[in-house]
Structures are given as C-alpha cells and as structure tokens.
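Q&A log
Question type: sequence-to-structure
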Amino acid sequence: MDLQEQLKKLFPDHEPSTEKEEVFQEEHELFIQKEPMICKYEKRKGKATTIIEGYEGSDEDFKILAKEIKTKLSVGGTFKDGAIIIQGDYRDKIMNILKDKGFKTKRVGG
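Response status: OK
Response body:
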C-alpha cells in the first residue's frame, strides 16, 4: 500500500490540489568592504583552526558567507562573535574563495 492509498483511507473527502507551489528565492548580494578581512591560523585544544574576522556588513550576510565557505571546502565550522571559525588550516583556499567574491584579504599568523 503506497502513501496515496493510505492518505485516501485516512481522509476520504480530501481532493489533492493540482496547482504547483511557487517558491521565490531572492538573490542576496554580499556587502563589499573597504578594509581587508583577516584570515588567521590558530591552534585550539591542539586542533588547527582558521578564523576569518573583519567583515563590515550585517551578521546575516556573514552567516551566508560562512555557510558557503564550509560547503565549498566540505569542512565543519561555526559562526561566533562576528568571526567564522573553520576546522583545519584552509587559509589559502579560503583567501582564494574570498578574492573570487571580490573581498580583500590579509593573511595573519604563520
């Protein structure tokens, strides 16, 4: 018994709608800034981490950027206190991603 048959037994009077739902996605432009973003390397609890700081736009834009970086690199990370924290030393790759998006970056540490 498939799902449609089960639903018909549960709701015999229901007629499924045939119209398609429209989903609107708004393109979101990231804020381009004057000062370079700082991309630094730290060891936290013995683990290598890359920290990106210095974004001047809104936190929502920075969260979108963090998610995009984590997805492209296939790594874990978080957004805390106005900084993106990425697991591992990915400074060069992150700086290339940010440069492709039009950001200025500055490498700090090591």
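Response note: Strands lie at 37-44, 47-53, 77-80, 83-87, 105-108.
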